[in-house]
Amino acid sequence: MHRRALEGCEKILGPDHPNTLTIVSNMASILQDQGKHNESETMNRRALEERQKFLGPDHPETLIS
């Protein structure tokens, strides 16, 4: 379900929209719980890099990432 939501958000809102990045972070947590650590790390890094770029390094959402 999250992958489907992510695809829709990326298509409609764009890959760097805050709502899209929230789904990316949620997926990273789910993947971590499933033991898919490499995929989880990739998703976490994506969320962090995009948030740093658009929100800045000191924004609360960036720091959460």
Automatic annotation (TrEMBL):
This is Kinesin light chain. It comes from the Eukaryota. It comes from Tuber aestivum. Gene3D superfamilies: Tetratricopeptide repeat domain (1.25.40.10). InterPro entries: NLR-like (IPR053137), TPR-like_helical_dom_sf (IPR011990). Pfam families: TPR_10.
